[in-house]
Amino acid sequence: MSDDIVARYENVSKDYDGVKVVSDLTFDIRRGEFLSLLGPSGSGKTTTLMMLAGLQSPSSGNIFLDGRPIVGIPAHQRNIGVVFQNYALFPHMSVGENVSFPLRARRTARAEIARRVRESLEMVQLGPLIDRWPGELSGGQQQRVALARALVFDPSVVLLDEPLGALDRQLRENMQLELKQLHRQTGITMIYVTHDQGEAMTMSDRVAVFDQGRILQCSAPERIYNAPESRFVAEFVGENNRFSGTVETVDAAECSVRTDDDVRIRAVHGGHVAAGDAVQVYVRPERIEVGGAAATRDNSFQVPVLDAIFLGDHTRLKVAMPGHPEVTVKRNFLDDADDLPAAGQTATIGWSAQAARVVTH
Questions:
Q1: 158 vs 106: CA distance, rounded Å
Q2: Cys-Cys with 61: which of 12, 150, 206, 314 at CB 3.0–4.6 Å?
Q3: Could you say which of 205, 231, 257 is where a domain stops?
């Protein structure tokens, strides 16, 4: 295993009473990266995390940490920090005592414990609260204490299992930015489980999208969003308009698709497509233009506008296309305020081939 790989799953599966919740998982975790495991409930992401932590054991396969196999090694011997959604703080211990617990369990020298606890609490901006009790802290402060405790012993990896799920929206968004800043500051590998796409996109270097115990795609957030490799990823991450059809012609990077409703669409493919293939074409609502330049795009249509809803930073249009009674368009309000049609009018919409993505499965 190369030095830039901190952990590896090799053909890892996990069964519960004959039900496979993680299926033949093989992937690497890069040293120093922020990796999010994203997927719906029951997709296997938390089980994947807990097997690395040592809190669950794989039914088959192997897991490596810093180049050595760790299946069978107790959790407390793995040099891994874990942060849970419920914080898991000891209510009878002060903030400082909670943070020092992993060091005391490792029989670290008292002076070293004091130094590391101070540094960890300052890192999460809680230095003055070292003598407080968990019950005296807000939810956000308790989460910071849990994070300081996970960082204090300089772990190889920090695992975070939906740690912001119990916080209100504003605090959750603030904590996302703080976590990302802390990751940059420490350089520690962080693996983050979430079902929230916004969290995954905001904080991650890479996102692994899970479904039914498998990783369908593991890429940078921009690629997950703009170049989904499967129908599930295209429909799970963000909002998309979908057109079903058959490939007519194929070029090096683009192809022409005739939809089931006899509409021709030009789109980008990722390879492995041929004339006659049944495919899905996905177009993000914000990639569709309205009026003006829309008529010059690779894909241009005259459509009736069913509805126009002003939402502050953008306007959401509902338009109809053959076989698609409701296609969504999102336009920035400041850019397009004077040009957007009203409900009941006819509009020209269009998008480039680069804005449309072909998916084969």
A1: 17
A2: 12
A3: 231
Quote the CA–CA distance of 137 and 129 in Å, as a whole number. 9
Burial of 244 by CB count in 10 Å (0-12 exposed, 13-18 middle, 19+ buried)? middle
φ and ψ at residue 188, rounded to 5 degrees: -75, 140
For residue 163, the enclosing domain spans: 5-231
The answer, as to whether pTM is greater than 0.85, is yes
Return d(Cα 183, Cα 190) in angstroms, integer.
7
Cα separation values, 361 from 207, 234, 247, Å: 20, 11, 14
Ordered alpha helix ranges (H), the chain: 45-53, 95-105, 110-123, 139-151, 169-186, 197-203, 221-226, 231-236, 333-336
pLDDT of the residue at 264: 96
Residues 111 and 178 in one domain: yes
What are the counts of helices (DSSP H) followed by strands (DSSP E) for the chain?
9, 20
Closest CA to 329 of 271, 280, 284: 284
**Do 264 and 248 form a contact (C-beta atoms < 8 A)?**
yes
**Dihedral angle computed from the Cα positions of residues 184, 187, 191 and 193, in that order, rounded to the nearest 10 degrees:** -20
What's the rounded Cα separation, in Å, for the pair 26 and 208? 12
Total tally of structural domains belonging to the chain: 2
Q: Per-residue pLDDT tens for 124-157?
A: 999 999 999 999 999 889 999 999 999 999 999 9
